[in-house]
Design brief:
730 residues; 4 helices
Length: 730
């Protein structure tokens, strides 16, 4: 019921709001900032479009009252929350522009979640996005015979992929290690595989012989899948009549390798309509010969003992598919191909030069492991139980891959973000994060992973940390040569000192950026309502009898003074003035070692936490004494104070009867009608103070909150003097 009455009242206030709004732009912006802070702290708004972002339990009764007052002022000005635009969800991807070989598709989103309103910002970033699709190569054709094939006895020719033709029994000077039978790049793999160990089971093979060569040319074969369209013929006695033949010439071999030909009738390479085998579904390892329904690459190591049974080991793919182009090598990588080494460190039988090789443009990217499956990949075990040399943890791995569009791809999508983590800092701006998972659904069958980041981060607890008071002694400093860089200071002055003693540039200071310790200097005895320590030098004749440092009663500091050297057991800072001949070389301000505590309360609000008094220190307040030595005693300026509520951090106000204090922000306090030297009096504050006071000796200043400085005992028109500032709430 209370909230309803409040909302009703606010709506009534909103009528003719523009006419009732009396705030200037600067004041209105200030109120907007204050109201946004209220929302950040969980204030439940009654203004349409404004939403709290925190829990209202964070607000005290006083803070809620403050927020409600600011809200009423804003409603009078017909104010509403700015709504920045944010993107809605992306729509569906468009159809891919190509069925294979790489196309593109697009999708769009709208700036409507929410739409920008009340001058809010448009969405950042692009309305649409594009991605590549159907990147798998289009199925090519098989090489035509003879124009797409080539023999080379000098390595792999440019623009070709090759089957290596090798015979270990040949002498090295016969140079068979650089002999290749090749086909043009970009065509489908014809499936030719070389064997130095007889026919490969389950394939159609043609024997390659040279009777005149004594180096075991009796067990060498070219083998192809059973369903190959090729039907090769071999001749070691010149070209075969009626066929198209390609010479296999090795001039470095003296054993009549000058009349050997591989022949075939002219053949136009047919298009390959079958897809490459999908990984891992259409591949298989076998240690017991060629499985039914499969074509295989034989996996052989001549150095293995016969009882290890490697002669019947095969890596296979289903029949009827395009040839994946896998070739086995026991003699290192095959030139011009992409190879993965097959190793087993625990096997002593030369498993150092064995490789699976594929054409450079293969879509496969195989990985080998001799220590179990690789995380994140799909792995097929290569198991040979007859080999005792740990062939039980070897795997060939690859990510899930397919070329067949009938295997439905499932792209990943994100879950909703979880809850924000705890903020990394309680103040001064920390960070917090939240995560989501790519499992709504998870990507399947080579589907795309989720786009974007799994985790997002935002700033939190952006309010400045409570500052701490200066620690003793490391944060304090004496200076007899003006204000040191990086410090805020209390000026230490004695009007009775001769000018040549240079006390006008003496300061006791603390580091910038720390809370004000509340030290105030007095040349007129103790300041009422404060705890003071007398600063004396008995050898100095210039009235060092009424000088004090004073602090608020609840100050944690307990200063001690010595004019006879450091005090034993305390940490002391020397007050040295070398220009003063009156023994100012053994004076020290002392205190126990002290770690400055944090200030948890906020600075006094203006104007409600400040007060003027012409009758001494009011109960419950700490004060800056306002004094002018030139005023007659009957004008009673000795009991005038400008004060702030006890228990709050010190606002850092300091009074000066001797001009502006160096290194501080000062406002002059004047009364032109008063003849008693009101020309050099100032209130000074640290440079980083949030207060920006204005003085008036002619009544309150318009649009500011003003506190009267009234001294009825002074006849010189001290009835229209005001210290002013805009409303300030911390």
């Amino acid at each position: 019921m209370g909230n309803l009455l409040l909302l009703t009242a606010l709506l009534i206030l909103a009528v003719d709001a523009q006419d009732d709004c009396t705030f200037k732009n600067k004041q209105l912006r200030k109120k907007e900032d204050l109201y946004n802070e209220c929302l950040d702290e969980g204030y439940k708004s009654s203004i349409v479009g404004c939403a709290a972002t925190g829990g209202e339990s964070d607000l005290s009764k006083r803070e809620k009252k403050r927020c409600r007052k600011v809200e009423e002022d804003l409603i009078l000005c017909d104010w509403s929350c700015v709504v920045n635009g944010d993107w809605g969800e992306f729509g569906e991807w468009s159809e891919c522009s190509a069925a294979c070989g790489g196309g593109t598709q697009t999708r769009k989103r709208s700036c409507d979640d929410p739409q920008p309103a009340e001058g809010g910002a448009q969405c950042e970033g692009d309305e649409g996005e594009t991605r590549v699709c159907n990147v798998d190569p289009c199925p090519p054709r098989l090489p035509s015979w003879p124009e797409d094939f080539k023999w080379s006895n000098a390595g792999v020719p440019d623009g070709y992929t090759c089957m290596r033709v090798l015979e270990f029994a040949e002498p090295k000077d016969h140079t068979w290690e650089d002999n290749f039978f090749c086909w043009k790049n970009g065509l489908a793999d014809p499936g030719l595989r070389w064997s130095m160990a007889g026919e490969i089971a389950g394939q159609k093979c043609v024997q390659i012989t040279e009777a005149a060569d004594p180096d075991t040319w009796t067990d060498n074969y070219i083998c192809l899948p059973l369903d190959t369209p090729y039907n090769f013929k071999w001749s070691s006695a010149g070209p075969l009549e009626g066929l198209k033949c390609i010479q296999w010439l090795e001039p470095a071999d003296p054993d009549t390798w000058n009349d050997n030909y591989l022949c075939h009738e002219k053949l136009e390479g047919p298009d390959v309509t079958a897809f490459l085998p999908s990984w891992p579904d259409e591949f298989k390892w076998s240690n017991a010969g060629v499985p039914d329904g499969y074509t295989c690459m034989r996996v052989l190591e001549f150095a293995e003992p016969k009882d290890h049974t490697w002669e019947d080991n095969f890596f296979c793919w289903k029949n009827g598919l395009a040839d994946p182009g896998l070739r086995w090598s026991m003699a290192g990588e095959i030139e011009g191909q992409k190879c993965v080494q097959i190793t087993e460190a625990a096997d002593p039988d030369t498993w150092t030069d064995n490789y699976i090789c594929l054409p450079l443009d293969t879509p496969y990217d195989l990985k080998w492991s001799s220590a179990g499956p690789l995380e994140g990949l799909e792995c097929i075990q290569w198991l040979e139980p007859a080999d005792p040399d740990t062939w039980d943890d070897n795997y060939l791995c690859h990510s899930w891959w397919h070329q067949d569009p009938s295997l439905k791809t499932v792209n990943g999508a994100w879950t909703h973000f979880g809850k924000w983590s705890e903020c990394s800092a309680s103040c001064g701006t920390g960070t917090q994060s939240r995560k989501r998972s790519c499992e709504n659904p998870s990507p399947l069958h080579g589907g795309a992973g989720c786009e974007g980041d799994e985790e997002e981060t935002q700033a939190c607890n952006t309010k400045p940390c409570p500052v701490r008071l200066p620690s003793w002694p490391e944060d304090f400093k004496w200076s007899s040569a003006g204000v040191p860089d990086g410090y805020t200071c209390m000026r230490v002055l004695e009007f009775a000192e001769p000018k040549e003693h240079t006390w006008e540039d003496n300061f006791f200071c603390w580091k910038n950026g720390l809370a004000d310790p509340g030290l105030r200097w007095s040349m007129a005895g103790e300041i009422a309502g404060q705890k003071c320590v007398q600063i004396t030098e008995a050898a100095d004749p210039h009235t060092w009898t009424d000088n004090y440092i004073c602090l608020p009663l609840k100050s944690p500091y307990d200063l001690k003074w010595s004019s006879a050297g450091p005090i034993e057991g305390l940490e002391c800072i020397q007050w040295l003035e070398t220009s003063d001949p009156d023994t100012w070389d053994d004076n020290y301000l002392c205190h126990g070692t002290f770690e400055g505590p944090e200030i948890v309360n906020h600075l006094p609000d203006w104007p409600e936490d400040f007060k003027w008094s012409n009758a001494g220190v009011p109960d419950g307040y700490t004060c800056m004494r306002v004094l002018e030595f030139a005023e007659p005693k009957e004008h009673t300026w000795e009991d005038n104070f400008f004060c702030w509520m006890d228990g709050m951090p010190d606002p850092g106000l300091r009074w000066s009867m001797a001009g502006a204090i160096e290194g501080q922000k000062c406002v002059q306090i004047t009364e032109a009608a008063d003849p008693h030297t009101w020309t050099d009096n100032y209130i000074c504050l640290p440079l980083d103070t949030p207060y920006d006071f204005k003085w008036s000796s002619a009544g309150p200043l318009k649009d500011l909150e003003c506190i009267q400085w009234l001294e009825p005992a002074d006849p010189d028109t001290w009835d229209d003097n005001y210290l002013c500032f805009e409303t300030m709430e911390f």
